[in-house]
Every structure is written in C-alpha cells, then in structure tokens.
Amino acid sequence: MEFDRIMNMTPEEQPVINRSRDRYFPIRTITRGTGIHPLPRHPQALDLTVPLQRRTVGLEEFMAAGRTAGLLILKDGRIAHESYRLGTDEQSRWHSYSVGKSVVSTLIGAAIHQGHIGSVEDPVTDYLPILRGSAYEGTTIRHLLQMSSGVFWEEGYRNGQSVFARMYDAIREGRDGGILEVMRGLPRVAEPGSKFQYKTGETHVLGEILHAATGRRLSDYLSERIWSRFGMESDGFWCLESAGGQESGGGACNFTLRDYGRFGLFILADGIAGGERILPEGWVEEASHPRRDSPQSDYGQIEKGWPLGYGYQWWSFPAGKQALENHDGAFTGIGIFGQFLYINPKERVVIVHWGCWPDPWIAGHERSLFALFGNAVAALR
C-alpha cells in the first residue's frame, strides 16, 4: 500500500495496516520492564446482548456487524471477555489513533509530578520559544489539554485541503519539525479558553512540550514512568513524524490489547505503578472530567445532541443526576475508526475496543458501543 493512502484505507485494508504501522512509519520502541502485571480470568461468564439497528443481538453478531478487531473487558483487573477478530491476536500491536491523546495528557501529569512542568497554567511559550509571536502566544498548557486554545484548525481526515491534511503531509514527507511548523503558522480565531475545537495538532504540541521539559522522547518517558513500572506484557512503539525525530503526538501509539487494558488499570489505580505515585494526587479526577471553570467543554456543550464533556484529552460521561445509565462518572479515550479505551472507576471496569469502521466517524456507532459498555458494566455488577 502506498504511504499516502493510509488515511483512506478500505475496511478490508484497515486490520492489516492498523496492526503493522511499523512497516509504513519510522518508530521508536516503548520498552517494557521485567515483571508482568497479571490479568487473571474473571470467574463470571459474560453473556451479553446489545441493541443494533432496532434489534437486540448477541455479542458475536454485534462485533461482526461493527467490524470489531479486538475487545477486552476487565472487571477488578480480571479478564471477563477477550476476543480477537479480523486477523488480530494476542501479539498484535494496534494503532491507537486519538486514544493516544489520552496517553500524552497522562504523561503531562507525570511530568508535573516530577517537577519538569510547573503546572497546567504554565504558558506554552515558556517551553517552546519557537511559538513566540504566533497565535499560541498567551495560551497555556491547560488550554491545549482542553482543546480550547482559540487557534484555527480543521480536523478533516479525508479532506486534502484541511489543516489536518497539511499536518499529515508533514508526516508523509518525513519533515523533521514539520508539524510544529504547521502549528506555528495558524491564526487565532477566539480568545484562549473560550471555545472548544478538537485539534489533533495541539496534542502534538503537548508532546513537544513534554520533550522540551523532560529532555526525554515521549516513548522513552512513557517507558520509564509507566510502561516498565506497571508491568506491561509487551513492548509497544510510537510512530514518528520523521526518521529519528519526534513522536507523532496526536495519536500514534501502538500497543497490544491487554496492554491497552493495563494502561486503563494504571489510570484506575489513580496513577500508581510499582508502588510509586507517578501522577499527582487528584490528577486523574481533574483530567477525566470537565473543569467547573470551563463551560466550553462541559457536558452537552461541545456538540448538539452529544452528552459527553471533555477533560484533559479524555471524553467524560456525566455523573450524578445527569448520569447516563451504567456510565456514572465514566470516561473514555476515543480514536477514529472505532477505537475506545473506556474506564468506569465506580464499577472498576476497563474496556478496550479496536474497530475498523468504514469511515473515520460514523454518527451512532459510538452509541451502540456505549450501550455495549453499559451492558457489560451492568452484567458484571
């Protein structure tokens, strides 16, 4: 397959390409440690039904219809369901798409805990002087985490004229520093903190901040602080914007299904790995839900009919009286083509879904998956 067709894969091509990105991109390895965090089997058999197109179907039919490539359901750290389809298996390392954004935001928390970054209120230009004089002058790390910088963006995955396409061209051409060059040239369209606008490029900027603050590449920092300490089973890898260059921070991690699940368990453990606190106390709560002082990313405010809110690169379900059935206080990383890392702290459930949707985003497909996740939560309660 030609490199520039990656974003235009057919459904049949997707499973092959998504589990072999190292054939198409330069990568950097995320090294595991010596111990493995165990994932024992849950004693309860999980027999699920799911609504699908005004019918109720069994799990196998649901996964076939939705082109699921992998599904892992963990309850209390135990495997309640694990299945692989479309040629994947336990060794497959699957492309994260924007689920990787949640990984980057977590590393920001780790860098704050170590003192490499002062706080989320630090100006972006304190770490990236190259952005001085650009539209990012006056923005903070929190603005980037919340997708609320006020800088112009077009998230058009298959629109060759979008800003996303310009960013992707920099990757396709292997231009070192090319993504940051694109971001530097964007204009301002709103005041920082006033408007939510989803921007893949700004998560890459967060990755550049991490590199500048820690002196470590993202893959190495992830390995040192989380991967090796929590007991991941396999090495992962991160696709790079150029050979030997920066990780593509907008979402290009590649992990096995179980290690995605273990990352969810690390978040569920409030950021403790190997008995050591890696994330600041209270970080997970802050990062996983909209801030009270940020109405632009509050529940139901991002898009008409969309009930979720946005934290620090995590999509959040409402809690309390507004809670959706079985999702009280849950949150999820979401990537195009059907990638989800769902975490329900109240019920101690983590769910990983690998998808091969025919289009990057299909309205309604995510609601079917939310129903699946909720039914799994209820069945394991």
Plain-language structure description:
30% of the residues lie in helices and 16% in strands. It is α+β, with helices and mostly antiparallel strands and 381 residues long. The model has no long low-confidence stretch (mean pLDDT 95). A hairpin with a 3-residue loop joins strand 13 and strand 14 (339-344). Helix 3 (99-114) runs parallel beside helix 8 and helix 6 packs antiparallel against helix 7 (178-184). It has helices spanning 14-18, 59-65, 99-114, 124-127, 141-145, 163-172, 178-184, 200-214, 218-230, 257-268, 283-287, 365-379; strands at 27-30, 49-52, 55-58, 68-75, 78-84, 94-95, 236-239, 253-255, 272-273, 276-277, 309-310, 315-316, 331-335, 339-344, 349-355.
Spans of at least 5 consecutive residues with low confidence: none
Strand elements, count: 15
> Strand percentage, roughly?
15-25%
Please report the number of helical segments: 12
Q: Major sheet: order of its strands?
A: 5-4-15-14-13-12-11
Mean of residue pLDDT values: 95
Considering DSSP H and I runs of 4 or more, what fraction of the residues is helical?
25-40%
